[in-house]
Amino acid sequence: MRQYDPDLTPPWKRQRPAPEVPAEPDLVVEEVTTGFCGAVIRCEKTAQGPTVTLEDRFGKHRVFPMEPRGFLLEGRVVTLVRPRAAAPSAPQRTASGSVAVPGARARVARAGRIYVEGRHDAELVERIWGDDLRIEGVVVEYLEGVDDLPAIVDGFSPGPDARLGVLVDHLVAGSKESRIAAQVTGEHVLVLGHPYIDIWEAVKPSSVGIQSWPTVPHGQDWKKGVCRALGWPENTGAAWQRILSSVHSYKDLQPELLGRVEELIDHVTAGR
After folding, report:
1. What are 133-145's pLDDT values in tens digits?
2. Which end of the chain is more exposed for a tag (fewer CB within 10 A), N or C?
3. Sheet bearing 113-116, strands edge to edge
């Protein structure tokens, strides 16, 4: 049996659906019936359906129903629709994973300090925790080794309002570093370390683009040995800049370092 189209309007005379355009503020459109042209001020939901308020160049406001094919945009017929609500944006994070505080100013430096062994250690801590430390007013300094740590702690005179945190490389039981750490550790002094020979190893090999950190024979300069094993020029300064440039967030560091630095920050800022 032959089927008939209940709409007897020839296909070539039927109106095509007009594109839907969100009625964003300041969008300039023309209402097709009245010819009123203006910028979108607001959209509202009413009992009769959604409406849009337009403002013309003289500052006059008019309200129109948001009917299909009801407006012209740059000469094209469109259907205005209510803009979608913006999805809530996720809070911004610092490189350490902390929630960022937009516009926060650095505090005046506190009496408390965090000491690390060398310049590379200090640069890595700054790269990841710099924003957090500035907000807390904590300064990071470096020791160039731990041999003079007892004298430095004695001269610092730690106390409740001047806590001291120290990050030591290769802090393992029975080592020289562990014996020095035991001499200075106290209520207001916290010495923590990681198991790596050098701070370079605290960066994940995958972040640097290598399979693993090479084993360097005992007695050789470890950093130069790493450069040789990896086929890098024996320029440890350039090698470190290559490593540091691969660090973008806490995800590029080993957890053994992350936990120790966070603990030192908590210690130095305790009670504030």
Report:
1. 888 888 898 887 7
2. N
3. 139-142, 113-116, 164-168, 189-193
